[in-house]
Amino acid sequence: MLTNAVGDAYPEADITGIDLSPIQPEFVPPNVHFLVDDVEEEWLYPDNSFDYIHLRHMAAFVKDWPKLLSQSYRVLKPGGWIEFQDLCWRMSCDDGTMAPDYSPAKMVSLIKEGMATWGLDLFAAENHPEQLKAAGFVNQVHDVKKIPLGPWPKDKELKIIGSYSRAVIYDGVQAITMRPLTRGLGWAPSEVEVFLVGVRKELMKTSSHVYSYYHSVLGQKPLTQSAEAS
User: Fold this and answer.
1) What integer pLDDT is reported at residue 68 of this predicted model?
2) Which residues of the chain are modeled with pLDDT < 50?
3) I want to staple 34 with a disulfide (CB 3.0 to 4.6 A). Which of 9, 17, 18, 150 is the partner?
4) Which pLDDT belongs to residue 227?
5) How big is the CA angle at 45 (ends 44 and 50), to the nearest 5 degrees?
6) Which residues pair with 211 in a beta bridge?
7) How far from 13 is each of 24, 75, 83, 85, CA to CA, in Å?
8) What is the pLDDT of residue 228?
9) Residue 221 buriedness (CB in 10 A; 0-12 / 13-18 / 19+)
10) CA gap 183, 138 in Å, rounded
11) What are phi and psi of 13, to 5 degrees?
């Protein structure tokens, strides 16, 4: 867990972890504490009180990014950093091996459509650089990596990454589709289950060289107002 690792590495720092659910570990470093809270609610922290804010795998689940970024900007100290790490679920292919009717891509399209009915954007990670700039952050760093879906790459490391990414999606495919398709799009649960049979079969094939992009984005609160204006 990142919070514990950072707490161990920087014992002089005060680390706060926030989650919607009470899933925090029982044993943590003495300088780490957790809160069960919603980051989309009003933040009660004083201005200029944090050195670093880290958000991971949240892009598709935040309705009001300008508000969240505004609050992050307010509580960060001048010179402090904010970092996002998010997978964009958009599926891509460079060699034409992804068929037009590729069912995992269809699944992603349906999830995006269902989540949009709640005001959420499954591909929101693609917007982080522009939103950070609009919020006033500077010195932006944007690192993008390809995450293969399945062990199709020839590169050994990418093959391992692809195996893990496929396993995560395969094991969680019902959990990530059921609510968007039923509550968002009005499908019956039985219809979702039938659709997922084809998705699971397609996921196990290695003939489709499909990947998604993983975005890591850093932005800094200016040290001075003049730096912000420039």
Assistant:
1) 97
2) 229-230
3) 17
4) 53
5) 155
6) 92, 148
7) 19, 16, 17, 22
8) 54
9) buried
10) 39
11) -90, 155
Give me the pLDDT at residue 77, please. Answer: 98
In whole angstroms, what is the distance from residue 127 CA to residue 20 CA?
23
Per the document, the length of the chain is: 230
Asked if residue 52 belongs to a domain, the reply is yes
Examine residue 1 and state whether it is found in any structural domain, yes or no: no
Residue with tokens 């925090």: 24
CA distances from 87 to 3, 74, 184, 215 (A): 20, 26, 22, 6
Domains held by the chain: number: 1
CATH number at residue 67: 3.40.50
DSSP 149: S
Distances (CA, A) of 148 to 88, 134, 165, 166: 12, 31, 7, 8
Look up tokens 């609009």; give the residue: 134
Going by the DSSP 8-state scheme, the letter that residue 64 receives in this structure is -
Residues in contact with 109: Cβ distance below 8 Å, sequence separation at least 6, in sequence order: none
Range of 158's domain? 38-221
pLDDT at 69: 97
Candidates 21, 219, 206; CA nearest to 130 is 219
Asked whether residue 228 is domain-assigned, the answer is no
pTM, to two decimals: 0.89
> What amino acid is encoded at 226 in this protein?
S
Q: Can you point out the beta strands (E) in 46-203?
A: 50-56, 76-93, 138-148
User: Tell me: the pLDDT tens digits for 84-127?
Assistant: 999 999 999 999 999 999 999 999 999 999 999 999 999 999 99
